[in-house]
Design a protein that fits this description.
CATH topology: 60s Ribosomal Protein L30, Chain: A
CATH architecture: 2-Layer Sandwich
CATH class: Alpha Beta
Order of helices and strands: HEHEHEHE
CATH superfamily: Ribosomal protein L30/S12
Distance between the termini: 23 Å
Number of helices: 4
């Protein structure tokens, strides 16, 4: 497990799901974004592009299941944002 994913597990400020992650990035609240490699590329395209434009680091995670588990939620997730403190 990467250091970033370990940090996500212990972080108190995070949001999961595409819409919430996108909002956090747009508002400048996202410190880092995690994206699932097995998510449909067209689903993540706009979020990935926005992160690149705003210089928000992206960490890729192998699966949506693993990402949801690391975020502490009961379902799989295509994206999660670690929020600035």
């Amino acid at each position: 497990m990467s250091a970033a994913l370990t940090r996500l597990k212990t972080a108190s400020g995070k949001v999961a799901g595409l819409k919430q992650t996108l909002k956090a990035v747009q508002r400048g609240q996202a410190e880092m974004v995690f994206l699932a490699e097995d998510a449909e590329p067209h689903v993540l395209r706009d979020l990935q592009q926005l992160c690149e434009e705003l210089a928000v680091p992206i960490e890729w995670v192998a699966s949506m299941h693993e990402l949801g588990k690391a975020a502490g939620i009961q379902v799989s997730s295509a994206s999660v944002a670690l929020l600035r403190v």
